[in-house]
Structures are given as C-alpha cells and as structure tokens.
Amino acid sequence: xxxxxxxxxxxxxxxxxxxxxxxxxxxxxxxxxxxxxxxxxxxxxxxxxxxxxxxxxxxxxxxxxxxxxxxxxxxxxxxxxxxxxxxxxxxxxxxxxxxxxxxxxxxxxxxxxxxxxxxxxxxxxxxxxxxxxxxxxxxxxxxxxxxxxxxxxxxxxxxxxxxxxxxxxxxxxxxxxxxxxxxxxxx
Length: 187
Known about the structure:
It contains eight helices and six strands, in the order αβαβββαβαβαααα. The chain has helices at 2-15, 31-41, 76-86, 103-112, 120-126, 130-144, 150-153, 165-179; strands at residues 21-24, 45-48, 56-58, 63-65, 93-97, 116-118. It is globular. The model has no long low-confidence stretch (mean pLDDT 90).
C-alpha cells in the first residue's frame, strides 16, 4: 500500500509543474519512514493529519447517518508531536490540519515546524472574522516575545532543536506520567 502511495505521488509529480501536497493519516506503521519515502517521491508538502469522515449508524431505521464532528484544540497534540519529529528530516513542507483553533495553536504548530495550518473548524465555529483575531493575537504574542517573523520561530521546539533528541519523547512521557494523579488514590 505504501509503495502504491509513493508511486502515485511520483507519477503525479512527473505530470505536473505545480507543488503537490499529500494528505496523510497517522495510521502508517512507520510514519517517519513513510514521510521520507513520500518526500523522495517528490511530495512538496505533507499534510498531517487527514481526518476521516466517520458516519454514525441509526440502529432503529438501519441507516447510515452523516456525522460532522468539528475538531478541538486537543486534537492538535498528535500533529504537534509528529511535525516536531519530522521537521528538518525531510525537504517537504509540513502542514497541520485538525485541532488549530487559537493563536496559541497556530504558534505551537509553527514552533513544531509547520509552514501552514488549516483552521476550518475554528472558522466554522467563529466565522471568517476569526482570522483577524488569530492574526492580531499572534502579532501581539510575537511582539511580546521579540519574534520578528514566523520563519524565525519555525521549528524552534522541534525534536531537532533539542540537545538530546531521544529525550524529546522520553522526557514528555515521564512528565505526563509524573503529572497524573487521581484525587484520593495514592500512586
């Protein structure tokens, strides 16, 4: 299946002169390897991660029912992790789709290494005017933290920017486990 994806990207790239972005899911068995193969096949960008449409079932009427669930900021975490891991290891640009709702979400994605984000669910919830809010809040944050451009911050929190890349995953895992506690239940 992975070879089919790569062959298709190579065929499309050989036929077109425009950039080609490939939407991928998080369900590949070896995501970094697949990202590298798509990059080598000529993908100009990888979009992490495509959300699959998931219909529901009406068990009384035995019908498939449309079920549009908009993303939440919580969904951003998986994308941040993989963009931060892939940044600097492939030539293709990285785009984040799903879970980007606030200016902080956009900034996090850029710091992980994304070049582009999609804010579709946020715009469906808040209207097109929300773009101005995102822009103004981002500019205010950047000024407060002395960033001159998005490019300056891009990848600054990626795995590649860490002194010990292996600690990126290990430290986060230990930190998450250490932060967990159940009220009244000793650990």
